[in-house]
Design a protein that fits this description.
- The structure holds 3 protein chains of 3 kinds.
- Chain A has 33 helices and 16 strands.
- By secondary structure, chain A is mainly alpha-helical.
- The longest helix of chain A is centred in the C-terminal third of the chain and has 50 residues.
- Chain B contains 3 helices and no strands.
- Chain B has one domain: Orthogonal Bundle (Helix Hairpins), CATH 1.10.287.3510.
- Chain B is elongated and about 55 Å long.
- Helix content of chain B is 71%, strand content 0%.
- Helix content of chain C is 74%, strand content 0%.
- Chain C has 8 helices and no strands.
- In chain C, helix 1 packs antiparallel against helix 2 and helix 2 runs antiparallel to helix 3.
- Classes of the chains: A mainly alpha, B mainly alpha, C mainly alpha.
- At the A-B interface, helix 33 of A face loops of B.
């Protein structure tokens, strides 16, 4: 019945899925302030819930539609069911039609949305995880005065993300791409009255612009090469990217093709030929498009070198970090690579670049995460690192493995971030300071106070660290295995590759990528367990926060987190502070009030209250925050079985097969003995988990952090370098920012000296002088103005009384010309078209043009007499010459 | 029979009289009266030209000249209403109806 | 027949020119308005001769009935001030420009007349021509949109005239506004409303 209501090619249910979040955003954004918190919450959550239900229904209808296309095929003696690539699509309206200069390429871009296997899964994740995080936020942001604004942005984000995912062509994807970028900016700078937040938002926006530039370039190149921008059209026209020839290959050196030739400046010869390479350095369209799109992906998915915005983006509210900067938006780049996999695989160079970028990002970010103390910063770098894994996966041609990591990562990282948010929520209630409440060094022992948060966090940590059989183990193992055994080759066959001089990646690359990935896995396990142990194990170290005297005292005794000291204090605290705890809620201070009030409250604690009364212990979060944690934790634990490649149970792999058919199959050669390597490589992964977590346990639980301190003291340079995030921001500041600043200074100087001084002065003088002259004419006496009108009238009368003959010759080719006379009121004409000096007719006529034929080099003078309505006549002559030309001769034609 | 040119000449005479009055008089009310004279002259020309195409009353565009004259009358009514309102407010401001006193636009 | 028609044209034309002259030259604006009325009536007569019966009626109703009356109202509203004082300020420039205008007009008229010496008589007119039926077909047919737009023009003119003519009038206080202002003032000063108000 549903199938009749929503046919496959006019699937209007998409309008509901897309429309509800947009409606929520509009209602909350326009009327939110007046509606009150309850209504805002109801609107936002309902919108997402309906959208999620719609997504579920569509997904099951998609499953049904896919099942219908199933047919059995026998490949190498093994029977298997193969499905066609099916999509449910809905065209909202026609957006634009573009055509090339000669009408050569015409691209039509409808506003069309479609759900296929890939976008269907992604849509479920976005709406599902999105709903949980909305639920979580409704409690987390409960005390924020801009509650309505937050939910308007969040709903708008979901809408944009859905446009990105469901868009059936690249421009529509780009609309969503920009939309999520905008929402990301708005939400990072949500507390915009704080300077660092606003700066972080700006940074994210700008870094993303660099990536968007790449995406736009890629889009234009694709329109040029493939003549289409929708997924089907692109896949049909993808061969266009490998066309050879001057117009189709991109010449990098000499730039744009051509040749360097020697030339002479006076007697001095300039030897330019030394720049001429023996063979021109060209790349195919596929490589150019791939690199441009990759730039877009590095921006959105926070890869080297554009990852810098993501750690700073943690300035936004924690649910935002969970939803946008961990679970959904940052995976847009991987989604794009998966979506356009058939284009990326055309260039092994691009694939190798993607894999290398992914691997480098993974290990780079993991090293930074080792030493960060801010709980959200650790998770942020962990996100960058995990995104690196995904990019590595898709870069080695394991698209479904990379995409599966997107899925599992969405669950465990969202859970981790929400857990961190829960911790921060609890800490903030105690310390009322944004920085201190996120510092791991102030936490510890929270296991006792917030068991639910702890257990979900712990499960997710196990998952991300790769503990079998949790989800992260399966997805990461699949990527690493694929990185080892996959060899990317060109899918178009040897002859074409030879003709294009196409680059082939070295065979040693696989093991190198695998090793890098494995080391990253060790590092991941280490920093994640460090995070868990420091935050949840041991004893609470936060009692001294906000009490400078006690803090100083503790540091004098040597250990800020001395067991006995902290313990005894905590005991007394927990008994005596019932009243203080109750009083705290009246403050409303654990939300994020406006800045002034926050500082005031903090000062209050620091100078009066906290010195005399002890603090109250951290507390577990309310149910809207813990329920999403539990659900996400469950998924983080179990989602791995959706694609347990090593157990040869891979429904997701099979599900996505039609999407990647034609790209993954042809572009990847498996290394010899790939089947036998499966278990040993998985064992290595488990070993990496054990080593990483074991070291973390030894350092932070058994030795209470002493070895870490010793190492930091032993190599202060390295430790500082890691703490400062390899000083990449500083590097950019010294190069790109400084360069831009210098350019801006030059522009300012030019503006001041040339435009403001020279041009503005001259212009203003001219205007001033003419003003002085013209002011004399403005007497204010009306009849003088009327007189001016009379003068104009007289001029007009003269114009009409005198005839105005004009002739123009038009070349119609082949020596034929048409001589035309300018029209006029009541004009009649007399011609002498053959130039023999006598008029062709006896009387005036209305014929206003005459044909004329000339031989090459001949000249004729055409004369015309014009008579106007007043009976006046005037004569004009026009000599017409046909040029002596040889150019018009066609090749092969006899002269 | 009176030829078309006679009407046109009469119309031109009326127009010149109106324009002359418009230019030479300083009384705003008389200026407006002159404008009415000119508009009437133009209407007369429209109707006269239309008369030359009066052979078929039901042809498309048979009454174009008269329709134009009709709109001319409508425009004249609007013009008079606004013009006289301006005269009133100018009189309130300047206590005068002379055009050379109306120099508020100067500088 | 022909002579009657000729006589009719010359009579109407003569009266029209005379009326226009009076309208333009009269020192007393009331007399000028009467001249305009004369001209309008004779032009209406010419319209009749030109087979424009409907338009002649409109000419009478709108011009003679509305516009001239409006003129007279304003002239009477202004009273003696409507008569501009006679002095010679700016007479040179005015004389020059109007002279130029008349010269140009006369020359142009002469040239036109020279070009059109062969004056053909007008063709016979259809009996229906200029009647309400035929005219309405044109007005509500091909000229429907301009017709509707002209209603907007008149609307704007009415609003504009009201807005311009009101001018200072808004400063005149209505009795209700006065009571309100006094009540506010007494409230602010704390004094009881005046006894007169209370008695009302």
């Amino acid at each position: 019945m549903l199938g009749q209501l929503f046919p496959v090619d006019d699937f209007k249910l998409i309008a509901l899925i897309l429309g509800m979040p947009l409606l929520g955003a509009a209602v909350n954004g326009i009327w939110g302030q007046r509606l009150g918190k309850e209504a805002v919450r109801l609107m936002a959550l309902t919108a997402l819930a309906v959208s999620f239900l719609g997504a579920l229904v569509s997904f099951f209808m998609l499953v049904h539609a896919v099942d219908l296309t199933g047919h059995e095929e026998v490949v190498e003696g093994v029977k298997s069911v193969v499905h066609e690539h099916t999509k449910l699509s809905w065209t909202a309206w026609d957006w634009m039609h573009t055509s090339g200069g000669d009408g050569a390429t015409s691209v039509s871009i409808p506003v069309k949305f479609s759900i296929d296997a890939l976008s269907g899964v992604m849509m479920l994740v976005v709406t599902g995880v999105g709903f949980l995080i909305h639920l979580y936020s409704s409690a987390y942001m409960a005390d924020d005065k801009a509650y309505w604004r937050f939910f308007a942005y969040l709903n708008l984000f979901i809408f944009s993300m859905l446009v990105l995912i469901l868009g059936d062509n690249l421009p529509l994807l780009f609309v969503g791409w920009e939309g999520v970028g905008l929402c990301s900016y708005l939400l990072i700078g949500f507390w915009y009255d704080k300077m660092p937040n606003a700066a972080a938002g700006k940074k994210a926006f700008l870094a993303n612009r660099v990536g968007d530039f790449g995406l736009i370039c890629g889009m234009f190149l694709l329109a040029h090469y493939c003549g289409a921008l929708d997924w089907t059209g692109l896949s049909n026209g993808a061969e266009g990217l490998l066309k050879t020839g001057d117009l189709n290959q991109i010449h990098l050196w000499p730039i744009g093709g051509g040749e360097f030739r020697d030339f002479h400046v006076g007697p001095l010869p300039i030897p330019m030929h030394i720049f001429q390479p023996s063979t021109a350095f060209t790349i195919t369209g596929a490589t150019a498009v791939g690199l441009a799109l990759l730039l877009g992906c590095t921006g959105k998915s926070a890869q080297l070198p554009l990852y810098i915005w993501l750690p700073d983006a943690m300035a936004g509210p924690t649910p935002v970090s969970a939803l946008i900067h961990a679970a959904t938006m940052v995976t847009a780049g991987i989604y794009l690579i998966c979506r356009l996999s058939f284009i990326f695989v055309l260039s092994p160079f691009v694939m190798t670049t993607i894999a290398c970028v992914g691997a480098a990002t993974a290990i780079f970010a993991a090293t930074i995460a080792l030493v960060q103390n801010d709980i959200k910063k650790v998770l942020a770098y962990s996100t960058v690192s995990q995104l690196g894994y995904m990019v590595l996966g898709v870069g080695v041609g394991a698209f479904s493995a990379g995409f599966f990591h997107v899925l599992t990562h969405a669950f465990f990282k969202a859970c981790l971030f929400l857990g961190a948010g829960s911790v921060i929520h609890a800490m903030h209630a105690r310390v009322h300071d944004d920085v201190a409440s996120q510092d791991m060094r102030n936490m510890g022992g929270l296991r006792k106070y917030m068991p639910l948060t702890y257990w979900t966090f712990f499960v997710s940590t196990l998952a991300i660290a790769g503990c079998p059989p949790l989800s992260g183990f399966f997805s990461k193992d699949e990527i690493l295995y694929r990185a080892y055994v996959n060899q990317v080759v060109n899918p178009m066959g040897e002859p074409l590759v030879a003709r294009l001089h196409m680059w082939t990646p070295p065979t040693a690359l696989g093991p190198i990528l695998y090793t890098v990935g494995l080391i990253t896995a060790v590092l991941t396990a280490f920093y994640m367990f460090r995070l868990t142990f420091v935050t949840f194990w041991g004893d609470f170290r936060g009692w001294t926060i906000g009490r400078p005297s006690l803090l100083a005292q503790a540091e004098l005794t040597g250990h800020g987190h001395d067991d006995e000291h902290g313990h005894s204090e905590h005991e007394s605290d927990s008994h005596d502070t019932k009243s203080a705890h109750a009083g705290h809620d009246d403050h409303g201070g654990h939300g994020h009030d406006d800045d002034g009030e926050l500082i005031e409250v903090h000062d209050d604690h620091g100078h009066h209250e906290d010195l005399t009364t002890p603090g109250y212990p951290p507390h577990e979060s309310p149910w809207p925050m813990t329920v999403p944690l539990i659900i996400l934790g469950t998924f983080a634990a179990l989602a791995g079985f959706l694609n347990a490649g090593i157990l040869h149970f891979a429904p997701i792999d099979h599900w996505l097969e039609p999407v990647f058919a034609g790209s993954a199959e042809h572009a990847v050669h498996l290394r010899a003995n790939a089947e036998r390597l499966e278990w040993p490589l998985a064992a290595c992964g488990v070993l990496a988990f054990l080593i990483g977590s074991g070291i973390a346990y030894w350092v932070y639980v058994l030795q209470a952090g002493k070895p870490a301190k010793a190492m930091a003291d032993g190599a202060p340079g390295l430790h500082d370098l890691l703490q400062d995030k390899w000083r990449v921001d500083e590097l950019y500041e010294a190069t790109i920012y400084a360069g831009t600043d210098a350019l801006a200074d030059t522009a300012v100087w030019l503006d001041r000296s040339v435009i403001d001084t020279l041009l503005a002065t001259v212009t203003s003088t001219v205007v001033k002088v003419s003003g002085v002259v013209l002011r004399l004419l403005q007497t204010g006496v009306v009849h003088i103005y009327a007189g001016a009108m009379v003068v104009g009238l007289a001029g007009l009368a003269i114009f009409f009384v005198v005839p105005h003959p004009e002739l123009a010759a038009k070349d119609t080719g082949g020596g034929n010309y048409v001589v035309e006379a300018a029209p006029g009121m009541g004009y009649s004409y007399l011609w002498d078209a053959d130039g023999n000096g006598t008029w062709d007719a006896q009387a005036m006529s209305a014929v206003d043009h005459q044909p004329l034929h000339l031989n090459a080099g001949e000249t004729k003078t055409v004369r015309l007499m014009v008579k106007n309505a007043f009976g006046f006549t005037k004569t004009v002559a026009l000599p017409v010459t046909r040029p002596e030309s040889t150019k018009s001769l066609e090749i092969g034609q006899n002269p | 029979m009176i030829p078309l040119e006679a009407y046109i000449t009469l119309s031109a005479f009326l127009f010149v009289i109106g324009g002359f009055g418009f230019l030479i008089r300083r009384n705003v009310i008389v200026t407006l009266l002159s404008i009415e004279v000119m508009l009437n002259a133009v209407n007369l020309a429209f109707v006269a030209f239309n008369r030359a195409h009066a052979a078929d009353a039901n042809a498309v565009g048979a009454h174009t000249g008269q329709v134009f004259a009709f709109f001319g009358i409508a425009a004249a009514a609007a013009e008079t209403a606004v013009g006289l309102a301006i005269v009133l407010s100018m009189f309130r401001l300047k206590r005068s109806v002379r055009t050379d006193e109306a120099d508020l636009l100067k500088n | 027949m022909s002579t009657v028609a000729n006589l009719y044209f010359y009579l109407c034309g003569f009266i029209a020119v005379c009326g226009a002259m009076i309208a333009v030259t009269a020192a007393n604006p009331v007399r000028g308005a009467m001249g305009l009325l004369t001209m309008i009536l004779s032009v209406a007569g010419l319209f009749l001769a030109l087979h424009a019966q409907f338009l002649a009626a409109i000419q009478l109703i709108v011009y003679a009935g509305a516009i001239v009356v409006l003129f007279l109202f304003v002239i009477m509203l202004l009273g003696p001030s409507a008569r501009a004082p006679r002095d010679q300020r700016g007479s040179v420039s005015r004389g020059f420009f109007s002279g130029l205008f008349v010269l140009v007009a006369l020359v142009t008229m002469y040239l036109s007349a020279r070009a059109a010496v062969h004056a053909d008589p007008l063709p016979m007119a259809d009996n229906d021509f200029g009647g309400i039926d035929a005219f309405a077909k044109s007005l509500f047919g091909e000229a429907l949109i301009p017709f509707e737009l002209s209603s907007a023009l008149l609307m704007v003119a009415v609003i504009g005239a009201v807005a311009v003519a009101r001018g200072e009038a808004s400063k005149v206080e209505t009795p209700a506004a006065k009571r309100l202002r006094e009540a506010r003032a007494s409230f602010e000063t704390g004094a009881a409303p005046s006894t007169g108000e209370a008695a009302e």
